[in-house]
Amino acid sequence: MEGIFDTHAHYADSAFDIDRKKLLDRLPESGIGLVMLASAGISDTIENSKLSEQYDYIYAAAGVHPENADDDLTFDYLDIIRDTVKKNPKVKAVGEIGLDYHYDGYDRERQITVFTQQLDLAGELGIPVIVHSRDAWEDTMDILKKYRPSGVVHCFSGSAETANEIVKLGMYIGFTGVLTFKNAKKAVRALESVPADRLLLETDCPYMSPVPFRGKRCDSSMIPYTAEKAAEIKGMDTQELIHIACENGRRLFKI
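and the corresponding structure tokens:
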């Protein structure tokens, strides 16, 4: 398989500290044509921008994940994101941003503030967003319907009905190795409902390794397993689906 676009990876994560350069040097040999690095915070934003400058096939997003909203609000994080985007033409999106109510003790209002501030910034910069939503679909959808950004809801975990609402907003939906899990009925139904021209393939590595690698560190070379399952669900040829998903990602991120 060739021409794979991993639209959501975290290669600045410490899980790759031991072999990051070796891995990134060889990914193109595994059929990986493009990678979009998502940022969890400001340190990620800076590191991902540097990685995008070091590798032709790597692009980056700049942003603050909802779980890091408290940390990165201690300074003017928006200026750093804005400057990173303006200085590096390979930084193509704001993300990952959004809402996460999964763990006890989350600050709903703070998360919403950081999410909407970054949506405003993406609108100012004229670039798409990469949206994270976990156990927060009602608030997420209310905000997306208000802002109507260009972008993708990544690692989709919602219902087919929610997927349809997102597509109607003109956004894309990213699917991970979760599709290959035995208990992935919800993700499968969502993918069934998403038009081919609105789906993206991603790893969310180092997380979400597809079967048969579940429980191990994930990387972009594992996407073919996700693509094969997605193609089976959509009744398509795997390479055709990879090509369509790549073109979708290029169109969204203007690559």
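(Above: one complete record from the training split.) The chain is about 45% helix and 15% strand.
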